[in-house]
Automatic annotation (TrEMBL):
GO CC annotations, alphabetized: cytoplasm
Originating organism: Penicillium cosmopolitanum
Protein name: inorganic diphosphatase
Endoplasmic reticulum in keyword set: no
PROSITE patterns to which the protein is assigned, alphabetical: PPASE
UniProt cross-references to InterPro entries, sorted A to Z: Pyrophosphatase (IPR008162), Pyrophosphatase_sf (IPR036649)
Listed EC numbers: 3.6.1.1
Superkingdom assignment: Eukaryota
Length: 217
């Protein structure tokens, strides 16, 4: 199946079998991680988000670093796709979740904020708008701030962002605005990232830096 992303006429998505979601542009296969620009416009702070998991979905999908062209694949354990449990107050994923192209948290470098190395993945982005995205969508999003999770002992930054087409986009400029218009949401979002692996028999994660929410600057 082939579809055109509603956020960019340049990018098409084609499914190769049931397991891999590949990206194409101009009739050739591309990597969503390496070939899609970080910024939508060099003069803007709006970035390209590759949606891996739509809001309320329970299927863990992710960009495959090990496969040519980095398709999106189900995250699996012992050959079975990971199905996430509901963590109150959310059903499935609490937001549209994905990666920011052209970014990487290196496992070989110590993060200057946490003192712990990165998780070897692109930067994660939590898009908190009302629109439910779709897997493989390229969303233009405005970063608002961030928090950092220590996930199984690795630094894992979470960029909080809003889609520029969302009704709230004109009202949200930084992380403080999120609390003003969505009171309690960020605290619940941090709690979800701490507890979502517990039903799998794993320990809770920790929000580093005392749980601090950082503005985009």
């Amino acid at each position: 199946m082939t579809s055109t992303c509603d956020e960019s006429n340049a990018i098409k998505i084609s499914e190769n079998g049931e397991d891999s979601l590949f990206f194409e542009s101009g009739g050739r296969r591309i990597s969503p991680w390496q070939d899609i620009p970080l910024f939508v416009n060099p003069d803007s702070d709006v970035v390209n988000m590759i949606v891996e998991i739509p809001r309320q979905s329970k299927v863990k999908m992710e960009i495959s670093k090990e496969t040519y062209y980095n398709p999106i694949k189900p995250d699996s354990v012992k050959g079975q796709s990971r199905q996430l449990s509901d963590i109150a107050p959310f059903r499935g994923y609490p937001c549209n979740y994905g990666a920011i192209s052209q970014t990487w948290e290196s496992p070989n470098e110590i993060d200057d904020q946490t003192g712990i190395s990165g998780d070897d993945d692109p930067l994660d982005v939590c898009e908190i708008g009302n629109v439910v995205a779709f897997c493989g969508q390229i969303r233009k999003v405005k970063p608002l701030g961030a928090f950092v999770v220590l996930d199984e002992g690795q630094t894992d930054w979470k960029i909080v962002a809003i889609g520029i087409d969302d009704p709230l986009a004109t009202k949200l400029s930084d992380i403080d605005d999120v609390e003003r218009f969505l009171p309690g949401f960020l605290q619940a979002l941090k709690g979800w990232h701490c507890r979502y692996k517990v039903p799998e028999g794993k320990d809770e994660n920790t929000v580093a830096l005392g749980g601090r929410l950082m503005n985009k600057q």
